[in-house]
Amino acid sequence: MTASSPLNLTDDEWRKRLAQHNAEPLAFEVTRHAATERPFTGRYNQHWAEGRYGCVCCGQALFTSDTKFDAGCGWPSFSQALNPEAITERTDRSHGMVRVETLCSQCGAHLGHVFPDGPAPTGLRYCMNSAALRFEPQS
Fold first, then answer.
1. Is 0.85 surpassed by the pTM of this model?
2. Residues assigned a catalytic role
């Protein structure tokens, strides 16, 4: 890895990179320290435009609007990833719960969690933080 690789950035470099991408103020804490935005407050919770959602830190494509659905949970929810290799999953035992955390496979950004209570055909609900996402409208 080179010093310019997103995986080697310092906290200050991450903050600068996120500011350059007009990320929400909470983006750094969410993506680099696994914070969670409050439910029903994220810019993409009730966002229904057609396009692609990528990682706010590195731009890797993660989800498309055709897999987004209203789960009523207060966070943007998707039934499947655009490419399964784009998301890394790991067990999260924080806050007295056992959940599956989702991270960007390219830069390690915390995205949210995935739950087995989504719609068919996958049965999955990728519950993401808006602050971890960057939307690109369909052209």
1. yes
2. 127
